[in-house]
Amino acid sequence: MRTRVDPTFKNELSRFGTEDWNHCFHCGNCTAACPLSENGTLFPRQSLRSIQLGLKDKIIANPEPWICYYCGDCSEKCPQGANPAELMMTLRRYLTAAYDWTGLARLFYTKHWF
User: Fold this and answer.
1) Do residues 24 and 52 lie in contact, with contact meaning Cβ atoms separated by under 8 Å?
2) Among the residues of the chain, which ranges form H helices?
3) Which domain holds residue 80?
4) R_g (Cα) of the chain, nearest Å
5) Which of helix, strand or coil describes residue 17?
6) Is residue 3 part of a domain?
7) How many domains does the chain have?
8) SS3 of 8, please?
9) Could you give the CA distance from residue 96 to residue 67 in angstroms, rounded to a whole number?
10) What is the pLDDT of residues 48-95, one digit of tens each?
11) pTM (2 decimals)?
């Protein structure tokens, strides 16, 4: 299986919310604090790492952003202030716009006047 890296993916995502994706250094506190993490899963770290690497296709196929219920436990435990909960919400906004064939979601999330 080939992996396609999109170097502009982080810039595209920054239009939907959080702009700095590099605060996370994968310490694992968010995964340990998340009530949805089970043994062997790296939720939400796996999605964050895919963003940092520019793996757009992997993010689009990943159901993790829809699983998160935005409790904020991960953001409270983050020593770097990376705010993983807001990063997951940014992914939701991006995915909503990516799946919307009308283009209204993209306008709603990216235009300040909307």
Assistant:
1) yes
2) 9-14, 29-33, 45-53, 56-61, 64-67, 73-77, 84-99, 104-110
3) 9-110
4) 14
5) coil
6) no
7) 1
8) coil
9) 14
10) 888 888 898 888 888 888 988 889 999 999 999 888 999 999 999 999
11) 0.85
